[in-house]
Amino acid sequence: MDNNPKILSLDLAPVVLAPLRQRGKRLIQYHDSIDLFHPGLISLLEKAKSLGDLLVVTLTAPHHAFQSARPLSDRDRLLVGFLTGLPYVDYVVVALDATPERMIESVRPHVYCKMEFPANGAEKDGRQISNELAALKKVGATFEFIAIKPCSPSEALSELFQTHSPEVRSFCRGLAEGFPPDEFQRVADGFAELKVLIIGDIIFDRYCSVEVQGLTSKNRILSARLLSEDTQAGGALAVFRHVRQFTSKVKLISLLGTEPWANATLARFIEPSEHDVIQTPEFTTIIKQRFVEPRMEGKELSKLFSVNMIERDHPNERLQTAVLDRISGHIDQYDLVLVMDFGHGLLEEPVRRYVQEKSGFLALNCQTNSNNHGFNVINRQYSRADSFSLDQTEITLAVGRRKLDFPVELQRLAEGMGSKYAWLTRGGTETLGFAPSAELCRCAPFERNVVDTVGAGDAFCAVTSLAAARELPLPIATFMGQLAGAQAVRIVGNSAPVLKSKLIEDGRSMLSV
Fold first, then answer.
1. pLDDT average, residue stretch 187-205
2. Which helix (H) or strand (E) holds 178?
3. Which residues contact residue 342 at a Cβ distance below 8 angstroms, ignoring those fewer than 6 apart?
4. Cβ atoms within 10 Å of 449's Cβ, excluding its own
5. Global pTM?
């Protein structure tokens, strides 16, 4: 929660909001106490957002607790997290010991809103809100009550769940019939006993934020001013960080070069005891450098172009033998072997063959990207996987046709590889899940407000692989993967791992409808 850009402190709010106000954005402030959950909340906030451009929700302690100076409770954090997840809430300002007047001075809204229950007509004459009215007059804001209709708790939950599509609500209701919310944390906690070996390419994702200045006068090429750089853990290292949220019994095997910065960068994301990475001057550490524009709230990250630091030739035979030696010393110790094959040379034919022969439970993600397009095709590189996931481009290449029946081809691919689980992710359309003894599983995306799709498939694969190794029912495994993907698309690149705590929180909430 501390890293959520939507959450502002009382002191930070003016710094963030004042420039938006100066650019002509109309600020709407909705204020309530920290215990504000009530019937009609969703429609109330939608109505508030309709009054302007940006909705800022400000939260204080209940009036009787202003002087308590208590920290945020788990319930408070759940509420704040829920609010920041709503598409029409742009910022949440939390200050438990602040008065409403102090909140108004910090935000300086154009319109200030509060909730009006039908029984609250006496409040409209201003006698109970005189201090707030005085503060609003100072900042030049208008006051508006937003009326809500009373409804039952079941109606309130139904309205709350309207933030998801009808397809998602239907899926979750069906799942909840045989899988109550109280079981969800127990299942997620069960991953802690799994011993996991991850084999795959480490990729460092470097995000360079730039301000586009225009075209140069002589060559007509794009000109931009560098604002900032952020190097993130991508590829198999990102998957390690996701899995590490659920179990501490995890090891990563990969390759790195000996560039002066490589060791220190690796150490930011993983402990020496958690990896068996071969470092050699015969290999160039992979960097995928993306030039992006500064992110605008409410919009997907705008990427301009990418520069990849990748060797044209794959590692030589000596390095491949070294990788095989490392794997052979580990592979029989693990409940789950998760292969993340990005097609950058770590997993050559001898390594692939050995992993398929020796793994107990093998989960596979064989990816297509700009560096290997048409060459790293799952059913040409592998003949066996207990579990796998792939995207629409990858299944199209595996089948060899542009037009295909996705459920039929997913089943054929899974049967051909002897798979117990198989998933096809189709971006913003749907995810399909297949298991031999189960009905085909279809699930719409859980998150429509996308920040960055980079790494979302890896997060989905990480969590579904754990679920598959635990032999969970297909709908539950798919549900958990979708929760991970929904988290990942709200994160810039791989700047943070999928959080187990949030996955459990979101899962329990969605199963409670």
1. 96
2. helix 166-178
3. 200, 201, 203, 235, 236, 367, 369, 372, 376
4. 14
5. 0.71
